[in-house]
Amino acid sequence: MAKQALSLSSGFDFLNKLGKNNNREWFNAHKDTYLAELAVVENFAEALLQALNTHDEIETLSGKKSLFRIYRDTRFSNDKTPYKTHWSGSFKRATKRRRGGYYFHIEPGNSFIAGGFWAPSTEDLKRVREDIAFDAEPLRKILKAKSFVATFGELKGEQLKTAPKGFEADHEAIDLLRYKQFLLRRDFPDELVLSGDFLKEANQTFRNMRPFFDYMSDVLTTDINGEAL
Hints:
The protein has a single domain, classed as BirA Bifunctional Protein, domain 2, CATH 3.30.930. 45% of the residues lie in helices and 11% in strands. The protein starts with 8 loop residues before the first helix and ends in an 8-residue tail after the last helix. Strand 1 and strand 2 form a beta hairpin. The chain has 229 residues and is of the alpha+beta class.
């Protein structure tokens, strides 16, 4: 893949200034700058989507449609600043048989690529736990793979402090059964985000999620005989 043919450095400058001037007056006075930087991020997201589609099938129609709005919903937050100080977007995998989602977050000092299952339904969580309880080795093999550990370190997400209902506290896979979320994340230093390699590295990070996504998709969309649910 060609190296990233755009620079996010000016976008970082805009976000840093927005963080110091997070109010509508400043934002409106710099709306042209915002729109110019948004166009750069849209181009990045489009390039990332095209790269992602070379090894997965994505339902999201364009990089532009992947992006989240910069305007914050402050209705239920103590933080009333009106704007986010990061760029972010997500890509949805195509068809019900492909489970899991991709996410990117670009922010000075806090950029990362992530994916997984943020809020699994009660039914999905039950199916995953039952599969783990039956045989945790397929999942453990994925989590111990060199490429997985090098990219993500370990599985992340909220966990119960005790055993989930219906499972023994001394179950040999209790460490996995406690998960309520199943998340993968790789943090990126600013230097790499602003380099020509970020697009390539972001795409490779998404690619390295596939064994985990394939496992979860199989668990959530097929029965014990491998037949579609």
